[in-house]
Specification:
Elements (H helix, E strand, L loop, with lengths): L3 H57 L3 H24 L1 H31 L4 H21 L5 H13 L7 H7 L9
């Protein structure tokens, strides 16, 4: 027969896994938005510079292709500016990063709850209250989190399953701790 601590632990562990996933997905979506912003910003700067060069060059050489190219580059610059105004990829990145940070806090609190369950220093009722509180916090974060893309989910899966972003070996953990706190083999 499974005891109440084990039943509670199973539920909390599932909540933990959801928080880990959600945090990583939001983090990856922030990276996608930041990359898009940087790319478009670079394109805008290059196009604006080339447009200026093209317009100035028409003073010295009045060729039609220079005017056409300058007009196209000017259009691209205007398009990127309009895209920034409408979609605000820099603000989107900030929102996803903020959501990821909030989910990281929730995740760490859930991990503390798992530790408390394992230690069995509190009653099941006390732990259930903490679980409910954390579940409410997590649900609030999920509800307010900005939407993500399938690409972010795929990148999160690679980060968690292939590159093992949230996994540390004993040697790594020991290297971060003072010698007195290191685990001996």
């Amino acid at each position: 027969m499974t005891d109440k601590y084990e039943i509670l632990e199973d539920s909390v562990r599932k909540m933990y896994a959801s928080a880990v996933w959600s945090h990583k997905i939001q983090e990856k979506q922030a990276d996608i938005c930041e990359q898009k912003y940087r790319t478009l910003e670079t394109i805008s700067i290059i196009c604006a510079s080339l447009t200026s060069v093209g317009i100035i060059s028409t003073i010295f050489d009045d060729q039609l292709w220079i005017k056409i190219l300058s007009a196209i580059l000017s259009f691209v610059t205007g398009f990127v500016a309009a895209y920034f105004k409408m979609f605000e990829p820099d603000k989107q990145a900030k929102n996803h990063k903020e959501s990821a940070n909030n989910l990281l806090i929730v995740r760490n609190n859930i991990q503390c709850l798992i530790t408390s369950i394992k230690l069995r220093e509190k009653t099941v009722a006390e732990l259930e209250d903490l679980y409910q509180k954390l579940n409410d916090e997590a649900n609030q974060e999920y509800k307010s989190a900005p939407q993500t893309t399938d690409k972010a989910v795929k990148l999160a899966k690679i980060a968690l399953h292939v590159t093992k972003d949230n996994t540390f070996s004993e040697d790594e953990i020991n290297s971060y701790l003072p010698e007195a706190l290191q685990k001996r083999k």
